[in-house]
Amino acid sequence: MAEKGTLRVKKGMAQMQKGGVIMDVTNPEQAKIAEAAGAVAVMALERVPADIRAAGGVARMADPDVILGIMEAVTVPVMAKARIGHFVEAQILEALGVDYIDESEVLTPADETFHIQKDKFTVPFVCGARDLGEALRRVGEGAAMLRTKGEPGTGNVVEAVRHMRMMMGQIRKVAAMSADELMAEAKNIGAPYELLKEVKEKGALPVVNFAAGGIATPADAALMMQLGADGVFVGSGIFKSKDPEARAKAIVEATLNYDNPEALAKISRGLGEAMPGLEISSLKEADRMQVRGW
Amino acid sequence: MKIGVLALQGAVSEHLDMLKACGVEGVGVRAPEEFAGLEGLIIPGGESTTIGRLIEKRGLKGPIAELWDKGMPIMGTCAGLVLLGREVAGCPGQQLLGHMDTVVVRNGFGRQRESFETDMAMPFLGKAPFRGVFIRAPYIARFGEGVEVLGSMEGRVIAARQGRGLAVAFHPELTGDLRLHQYFLSMGKNLP
Fold first, then answer.
1. Residue B192 in this model has a pLDDT that exceeds 80
2. Min Cα separation B189/chain A (Å)
3. Catalytic option among A4, A10, A81, A149
4. Interface A-B: count of C-beta contacts within 8 A
């Protein structure tokens, strides 16, 4: 009997995206540019994070017409964002047929206490995390893919670096622990014990982990890959830059050649201006997206 | 025996793990000079448009064709099935390798929501069923005379062989079942 939406099928979908770049797009034209540049998937949005940040107010799931238009335009998988805890937005996205749902801090949270119970859905979810405990809580709820939160829409990679270093460092620490130290660690970082045990045994997260939040240049993408990311999300970085087509191609190439400085030097040339960046300390606490969710 | 896994994007480490479990040396290859000495190649699952574009961009079409011409076995899983084919139905412009005389349908079983796993009869791998994991899987819609059908699902061809070429629409690398990889490795020995 055929079983749909098994954990293997959901996690497997993310495994097929490894080494790739997932790009934010807001219309069919951008989606086609992303696909032609070699994106492994696109994230369908009404506005990229930098514009959400600028607009203020409440950011919600995109208009279904925007999402459907993008789904018709490309053959690569299409992802879309639901607000944290907004399981009805997720139900609607699943009904639309999107390939992956991002329960995302880029949108205004709908629930300050509870995230979506993701294992009830047939469609897989990706969630953001800042450390190992948060990552494993999301996996415990059924997330089949993770990403760093970073600080979206800033064009500043410093927060994504912080979160990736934090997670990788914690994984190395757990892998080196003795078995009798594990329960205390699970309590300290707020991680489900069984999942932490799995991390210890594998020396790796139980699902694919991408970098996201502030990646704006080929060098940023390669940096995140060298720090241990399985792939890269680029939000505002592409379509807020001077030459999106060239930059999209360059970031795909850089993600593949992340450990080859000579290739990276070539790839980084002639791209025009990157998106304007924001200094994190200039953000008001209320404008920091990464603190949304727990 | 050294087997390459095309390491441009997708489920590369999973195939390397399977090769290791088969007792064979596997290496990720992404540049022309890395193809020297390979005795077979696996093209993994991933996004076929992305991998196809990178094959072109990095000049790997030649090295792969050389392996094929030398008689080395090449296996494609999921996106690899697409890339080994001659044409994608509805996408005449998509960059392919074209070593197998097949016309393929991408996302032939639907979107991710429709992705599934199931036990399949695969007589060429023995009596026990093989767990088929289908993720936005393609199928082979039409094929030439030299193509031998090895398996079907819902009336669609999901496993086929043409000489040294082996293509499956599912993901053996996600199951831990080594039989398909072992069959692939045995193809190299039985070729002239």
1. no
2. 30
3. A81
4. 108
The shortest C-alpha distance from B190 to chain A (Å) reads 31
Query: Do the domain assignments include residue B45?
Result: yes
Q: Looking at residues A184-211, what average pLDDT do you find?
A: 98
Residue B93 in any domain: the answer is yes
Chain A residues with CB inside 8 Å of B91's CB? 75
A160: confidence class by pLDDT, cuts 50, 70, 90: very high
- Which residue range forms the structural domain that includes residue B131? 2-186
Alpha helices, DSSP H, located in B111-191: 179-190
Q: Is the pLDDT of residue B78 over 50?
A: yes
**Does the complex come out with an ipTM higher than 0.90?**
yes
- Would B191 be classed as within a structural domain? no
pTM (whole model) above 0.95: yes
For residue A120, indicate whether it is catalytic. Answer: no
Pick the residue from chain A with its C-alpha nearest to B51.
A38
Q: Is B22 a catalytic residue?
A: no
Q: Provide long-range contacts, Cβ within 8 A and 24+ apart, for B175-181.
A: B175/B130, B175/B131, B175/B133, B176/B21, B177/B130, B177/B131, B178/B18, B178/B21, B178/B22, B179/B122, B179/B125, B179/B126, B179/B130, B180/B122, B180/B125, B180/B130, B181/B18, B181/B19, B181/B21, B181/B22
In a domain, B192, yes or no: no
What is the CATH classification number for the domain harbouring B34?
Answer: 3.40.50.880
